[in-house]
Design a protein that fits this description.
Length: 483
């Protein structure tokens, strides 16, 4: 027989700003902690070797791009949990979680086969020998973290989808701290206490290992949490078997999300490879600007995730009108955050750049001068497109919460490749013949056009309202709880 719906995501009124932030604040802190860990990763690498800094962004994004189809399935678990929990079908929600973990097993097998081909992949980039060696080492190490990365996303969906975002926050904070600590030890090396010896400096390979191990920490914590509370009540581990019907439905809804991510990340990876052809200094400045962008923007992704969760709950409850209100509240909140960060990028770029330069010993005078000549201008591009990025993330997250995943994927592919990659390639490789700083500015103008168009398209989709009639619930499904 049917069971009562799970408790609401918060104790505040549905559709209110307080409800939004009760769900979003832990996610904002969570994603912000991930951003801090990534920034620390790049800062440590910049102080270890400029070639490692230049290599970390394209190699990391290539791994993320290839992983995206699997991540899309893992991330969609939260939508399934939200709608099934709100509709009183908790066992179906638990089954969805484990299908995401099975997707992680496939990811692990795929990346184990891909890792030996890293050299051939980065030969295509055409970067200098030092950068190429660092890219290969970083990519191969990240490949071994494929399983815990996807699995952690799927396991987090059990809590995020039910609105228990404080658990996600606590786990991600712990994983981020582990990442930062391991970064310091494995990049620079360390002397072990009690005369146990030394850990050598592994450089960028150590950075990749630290990232992979941080996701192992996250998975372990989620699995531990599931032995208590709601996980114990519904005996979540009893649903760990493979369920063909649920897996197929999760794949149908989640794969477009993964392709959306892949289109975005692959396009940005191609963009970085093209910028890398302009020179190592140009690639380092671009990496720095994107990294600072992620630091301010990742908390805003928490708003997009909250919109996904709350829209999923409202659809499961049959109240799409409240989902509309939540979408607008989340967008307004994110826009305010981006206005503040944009002002900081424009008015105070110096202290942000000095964070990466440190004492400057790892940079030659020419490299330092090139970074100062280019990076402040790139941060102005970031400030210009940030507002539209919020539209894309929040409104895109809102429609995905209802199960509308195909349009965002198609629109992202069109904008990313038609407005960013193709014109950047023309400017760098084809008829434009842009070089140096002029080439970087042309590339960033194309990137800005992509993000602005993506944001406007997601806004139109949300306002159009087609997503209101969508759902991932199984018609006529009857839930049962193991007792």
């Amino acid at each position: 027989m049917d069971v009562p719906a799970s408790p609401p995501p918060s104790s505040y009124p549905a559709g209110s700003l307080r409800e939004l932030w009760a769900v979003a604040a832990p996610l904002a802190i969570s994603t912000g902690s991930v951003g801090v860990a990534h920034v620390a990763d790049r800062v440590f690498l910049a102080r270890f070797d400029p070639a490692a800094l230049a290599a970390s962004m394209p190699a990391g994004m290539l791994q993320w791009a290839v992983l995206s189809p699997f991540l899309g399935v893992g991330m969609t678990v939260g939508t399934f949990v939200a709608q099934n929990a709100a509709a009183g079908q908790p066992s179906r929600a638990a089954t969805a979680v484990w299908q995401g973990v099975w997707a992680a097993v496939l990811a692990a097998l795929f990346f184990a086969a891909l890792a030996p081909s890293a050299g051939a992949l980065f030969d295509l980039a055409g970067h200098g020998p030092e950068v190429r060696r660092a890219e290969i080492a970083y990519f191969q190490m990240l490949c071994w973290g494929a399983f815990p990365t996807v699995a952690s996303f799927a396991l987090s969906g059990f809590y995020a989808g039910r609105g228990r975002t404080s658990v996600v926050m606590a786990v991600n904070l712990a994983a981020a701290l582990a990442n930062i600590g391991l970064d310091w030890i494995l990049i620079f090396g360390a002397r072990l206490p009690w005369g146990l010896g030394e850990i050598p400096a592994y450089g960028i390979t150590g950075a990749g290992a630290a990232t992979a191990m941080s996701f192992v920490v996250a998975c372990g914590l989620y699995l531990l949490c599931m032995t208590r509370g709601a996980g114990r009540e519904i005996r979540i581990y009893s649903h760990a078997r493979f369920d063909r019907a649920m897996a197929a439905k999760l794949l149908k809804v989640g794969l477009p999300t993964g392709l959306n991510m892949a289109a975005d990340v692959v396009a940005l990876t191609a963009f970085l490879f093209l910028v890398g052809r302009l020179g190592r200094n140009e690639l380092a400045a671009t990496t720095l600007a994107f990294n600072l962008n992620s630091l301010c923007f990742l908390p805003a992704i928490g708003l997009g995730s909250a919109a996904t969760i709350l829209v999923g709950h409202r659809v499961g409850e049959g109240r799409p009108d409240l989902a509309v209100r939540t979408g607008w509240l989340a967008t307004a909140s994110g826009a305010a955050m981006m206005c503040v960060s944009g002002a900081i990028f424009i008015l105070f770029p110096g202290p942000l750049i000095e964070l990466y330069l440190g004492d400057g010993d790892s940079f030659t005078p020419g490299e330092t001068a090139a970074l100062w000549a280019t990076a402040p201008a790139l941060l102005k591009f970031v400030a210009a497109y940030s507002l539209f990025d919020i539209f894309a993330v929040v409104f895109g997250g809102a429609v995905r919460g209802a199960g509308d995943t195909t349009f965002p994927a198609l629109w992202t592919i069109f904008c990313a490749w038609g407005l960013m990659v193709a014109p950047t390639a023309w400017g760098v490789l084809g008829g434009g013949h842009w070089e140096g700083r002029d080439g970087v500015f042309w590339a960033w103008a194309c990137c800005t056009a992509y993000i602005v168009s993506g944001g406007l398209g997601m806004t139109a989709r949300f306002i159009g309202g087609k997503w209101k009639a969508m759902s991932v619930l199984e018609e006529g499904a009857i839930d049962e709880i193991t007792t």
